[in-house]
Amino acid sequence: QVQLVESGGGSVQAGGSLKLSCAASGYVFSSCRMAWYRQAPGKEREWVSVIASDEVTTYYAESVKGRFTISRDNAKDTLYLQMNSLIVEDTAVYLCAACRGPRDYNYWGQGTQVTVSS
Questions:
Q1: Counting beta carbons within 10 angstroms of the beta carbon of residue 107, is it exposed (0 to 12), middle (13 to 18) or buried (19 or more)?
Q2: How far apart are alpha carbons 2 and 16 in whole angstroms?
Q3: Can you tell me the distance from the alpha carbon of 110 to that of 93, in angstroms, rounded to the nearest whole number?
């Protein structure tokens, strides 16, 4: 049974930082592309960042480029998202996703809330 469990969310003032984690189990973590998405109230889910199984190849949404850093530790089966210079618009539930299929990611976590106040 595949499980993705996010942690590290919380409330922070604008300009602050948070580091999210996503602990994976139930599949071969190192074999899958992984991603972070976010969903703000009343908005559609938004892709944030993706990292390939090689731990090196990464891509970012323009809205977070230069502020967020995605990483993974295949030895620990954990995905990370370091978020710096947070702005109010970053407020959302952040979800990790694993193993890209033909249409969407096959596995999703429950999400962790990030709230940025001005």
A1: middle
A2: 32
A3: 9
State the Cα–Cα distance between residues 78 and 64, nearest whole angstrom: 21
3-state secondary structure of 29: helix
Identify the pLDDT of residue 7: 98
The C-alpha angle with vertex 107 and arms to 23 and 99, in degrees rounded to 5, equals 90
Which residue in 3, 13, 19 sits closest to 99, CA to CA? 3
Q: What is the per-residue pLDDT for 72?
A: 96
For residue 28, is pLDDT > 90?
no
Tell me the pLDDT band of 27, cut-offs 50, 70 and 90.
confident
CA distances from 61 to 16, 69, 78, 84 (A): 19, 11, 21, 15
CA distances from 49 to 1, 13, 34, 38 (A): 25, 22, 9, 10
The model's pLDDT over 38-77, given as tens digits with 9 standing for 90+, comes to 999 999 999 999 999 999 999 999 999 999 999 999 999 9
